Amino acid sequence: MDYQKFILPHIWNLKPYSSARDEFKGKEGVFLDANENALGSGNIAPWNRYPDPMQWNIKEQLTEIKQCSLDQIFLGNGSDEAIDLLIRMTCNPAKDHVIICPPTYGMYEVSASVNNVPIIRVNLTADYQLNVDEICARINEQSKLIFICSPNNPTGNKLNRDSIYTILDKFTSGFVIVDEAYIDFSDEPSFIAELAKFPNLIVMQTLSKAYGLASLRLGMAYANPKIIQLLNKIKPPYNISGATQELVELALANKEFVKSSIETLNNAKKDLISGLNSLPGTKHIYQSNANFILVKFEQAQELFDYLIEQKIITRNRSTVTLCEDSIRITIGTTEENNLLLDKIKRFYA
Ligand SMILES: *Cc1c(COP(=O)(O)O)cnc(C)c1O
């Protein structure tokens, strides 16, 4: 695949910033190169030194967990950073466009808009699947990225794998981005295993959901090493803080927590679904392969307002395309879910 054809020339030819720490790799030494404060950081742990710009320790851990190679991993300050960098790498503002499939994650659109990049919307079908024919029909020379989110947010369902393969086969003049933020909750295999077969594939994941690290801000993009090199070239040199790197390393070592969280939340989801199904106001609960459910309610707006009064915050999706009267509910602890059920019961009583 000739990436040069669809990477913007100024990015392709960019000479990256060379940081002080790029020149010397060792840990021991007298470091007088980066204008840090040699005296320390006050009364807290020493954060006075710049962190590893390439985050090798975390990447080492991820190669084992995700079964990929070091040079296939990019780490961003949340997935949002990877989304933004991919748009800036490929899209000529006001000229090239990205394709998204609403209802879907809002950041694709925001990030494109911030960069003045037009958006083509090809809605999901009524059963929340990809409209493959329509997507393929809308592809032209100005198409640079197609965002596919599976399991999808806010609908919760996984998208048919065959549809994704078809798009990967058809769209070879740009990148197909498969956002797997919720993959850990589903039994679907990750598209990371398909990277060798599809040079136009980029898989995004995050530590914000199943790994329980939303506050640390760490998102991953997995792709062909050539694409990873380009992302590394344009990212801010120290995009992942040293504190985040240390804490993520500790968290990734605790494999039991993630595994048991997924099991606990998936069981709690089943209980919440059966609880909601027994309530009169529940019109429909959509299939979910994520840690949230989308539910169609009678009087959704009023219910949402009532829940806020009760200090239970859900996500009102009533005004979103194809989500009329629907509320997105994150699976909480058993206690939280029961409290929610109790309040909803009261609302309809
Ligand atoms: C939550 C979420 C993310 C994660 O974003 P971060 O910036 O990594 O916290 C990415 N994609 C989707 C679809 C999400 O719902």
Automatic annotation (TrEMBL):
Reaction(s) catalysed by this chain's protein: L-histidinol phosphate + 2-oxoglutarate = 3-(imidazol-4-yl)-2-oxopropyl phosphate + L-glutamate
Top-level class of the enzyme under EC nomenclature: transferase
Gene3D superfamilies associated with the record: Aspartate Aminotransferase, domain 1, Type I PLP-dependent aspartate aminotransferase-like (Major domain)
Keyword Transcription regulation recorded: no
Modification N6-(pyridoxal phosphate)lysine occurs at: K209
Protein EC: 2.6.1.9
Record's keyword annotation contains Transferase: yes
Ranges where the Aminotransferase class I/classII large domain occurs: 47-344
Pathway(s) it belongs to: Amino-acid biosynthesis; L-histidine biosynthesis; L-histidine from 5-phospho-alpha-D-ribose 1-diphosphate: step 7/9; Lipid metabolism
Listed cofactors: pyridoxal 5'-phosphate
Subunit composition and interactions: Homodimer.
NCBIfam families: hisC (TIGR01141)
Family: Belongs to the class-II pyridoxal-phosphate-dependent aminotransferase family. Histidinol-phosphate aminotransferase subfamily.
Protein name (Swiss-Prot/TrEMBL): Histidinol-phosphate aminotransferase
Organism of origin: Aquirufa avitistagni
Lineage: Bacteria, Pseudomonadati, Bacteroidota, Cytophagia, Cytophagales
